[in-house]
Design a protein that fits this description.
It is elongated, with a radius of gyration of 22 Å. The mean pLDDT is 82. The chain has one domain. Helix 2 runs antiparallel to helix 3, helix 2 runs parallel beside helix 4 and helix 3 runs antiparallel to helix 4. Helices cover 71% and strands 0% of the residues. By secondary structure, it is mostly helical. The chain has 5 helices and no strands.
Length: 140
């Protein structure tokens, strides 16, 4: 896992640099810089909008007595999207914008969270009540 992260931190900036040079040679340096600034600004607006929407939905679910466990993961993924969108480069911007698509985020959450912690069909986690009966005289 450490090797993968190390390769990611080495390869990603090199690929970003290559793409920026290619785009800059095609549309010009100033246009490339302005495009990077535009994607960062647009990403910031979309993250703020989706973050507030996620927060409001989590508060609504808590008011209904439900546990909004997946909303925390949505928030983390939105934070990662923000980090990627504010990093200069078109590859990280693409991944950041993909993280802003709610169905893709939901798919990632279903892959990350174990089945037992996901909400059931009715929006609630499955609850099993149990009673422990001990025949040991020392346990009360």
């Amino acid at each position: 896992m450490l090797r993968i992260l190390l390769l990611l931190f080495i390869i990603t900036p090199l690929l970003e640099l290559y793409v920026l040079i290619e785009v800059g040679s095609g549309i010009g340096g100033l246009s490339t810089i302005l495009l990077c600034l535009f994607t960062a600004a647009l990403g910031g607006f979309l993250i703020r909008w989706q973050g507030l929407s996620t927060l409001i939905d989590a508060q609504r679910r808590m008011a209904m007595g439900e546990l909004p466990a997946d909303h925390g993961v949505h928030g983390l993924l939105l934070g990662l999207a923000g980090l990627l969108l504010f990093t200069p480069g078109f590859i990280t911007d693409t991944v950041g914008f993909l993280l802003l698509v709610p169905p893709l985020r939901q798919l990632m959450i279903h892959r990350l969270l174990p089945v037992q912690t996901r909400p059931g069909r009715h929006g609630r986690a499955d609850i099993i009540e149990a009673e422990i009966i001990s025949h040991d005289k020392h346990i009360r």
